[in-house]
Design goal:
CATH superfamily of the largest domain: SPOUT methyltransferase, trefoil knot domain
Number of strands: 12
Mean pLDDT: 92
Largest sheet: 7 strands, parallel
Low-confidence stretches: none
Bound molecules: S-adenosyl-L-homocysteine
CATH class of the largest domain: Alpha Beta
């Protein structure tokens, strides 16, 4: 059954109005007609059975039943990503969504190539949200990944420091000893993990020093220096596997 997201705020009784993006998908791409049966996701974990009532610029639907409530990931993964150039940022957002990342914060650090104003523009436009929604539909994820506003490196450290239970890992190509399985294992359960990955130019030594002072653990992904987008894909896959989300 085809699935579409809706904003629960648009629900009036059993009537729901879909966004232009979802409406376009229904009306123009799939060419669904009035009375077609679909599933609607509220983005919070609820899945409903619904029928299309009116096909137009904003499709309206009627909810006819509740299918299921899907639990969130047991150990949410939060990714801080140094800004990458535009296209790579888009791909990383798509892959993180597919791999079940709960939250992604785009981070401006001293050596990033992605332009903060352009990236903030992308955050403000619905470009990234559209990437997330289409990745969710493709992989049948029911709760979209949350994407924060673009913030700078010190703000990211301050934000993550508010949660004492969060395991905070920073992937650094100059870390020679500590590997993921030294800091994560089945007998050291965690309630949440935040990982920080650098932009194409990596993190500076002073950024690393500040993070370490604040209790971040530096981690290696091996002796080879990976491209930024490869590093994120690898780190996310490994952490998700180790916490049981894959
Ligand atoms: N500044 C470096 C490369 C940065 S790679 C240079 O140009 O030589 C971009 C990011 O990928 C890094 O900031 C780091 O977070 C991650 N990364 C790449 N290879 C890694 C490795 N072997 N171990 C840990 N992190 C790595």
């Amino acid at each position: 059954m085809r699935r579409f997201f809706f904003d629960p705020n648009t629900r009036l009784g059993d009537k729901v109005t879909l966004s232009e993006q979802e409406s376009y998908h229904i009306a123009k791409v799939l060419r669904l007609q009035k009375d077609s049966q679909i599933e609607l996701l509220d983005g919070l974990g609820e899945v409903f059975a619904a029928v299309v009532v009116d096909v137009g610029r904003n499709v309206t639907c009627r909810i006819v039943g509740q299918r299921e409530t899907v639990e969130t990931e047991k150990v949410p993964l939060w990714v801080g990503q140094g800004l990458l150039n535009g296209k790579k940022m888009d791909t990383t957002i798509q892959q993180c969504t597919e791999l079940g990342v709960a939250r992604l914060t785009p981070v401006v650090s001293s050596r990033c190539q992605g332009r903060p104003d352009e990236m903030q523009g992308r955050r403000k436009s619905d470009r990234w949200d559209r990437i997330v929604v289409s990745a969710c539909k493709q992989c049948r994820r029911v709760q979209p990944m949350e994407i924060d506003e673009v913030i700078d490196f010190p703000a990211m450290l301050a934000l993550t420091n508010q949660d004492a239970d969060l395991l905070r890992l920073i992937f650094w190509e100059e870390e020679e000893e500590v590997r993921l399985d030294d800091v994560m294992s089945a007998d050291q359960p965690v309630t949440g993990v935040c990982i920080l990955l650098g932009p194409e130019g990596g993190f500076s030594r002073s950024e690393m020093a500040t993070a370490k002072e604040l209790g971040w653990q530096t981690v290696s992904l091996g002796s080879r220096i990976l491209r930024a987008e490869t590093a994120t894909l690898t780190a996310v896959s490994l952490v998700q596997y180790l916490v049981g989300n894959l």
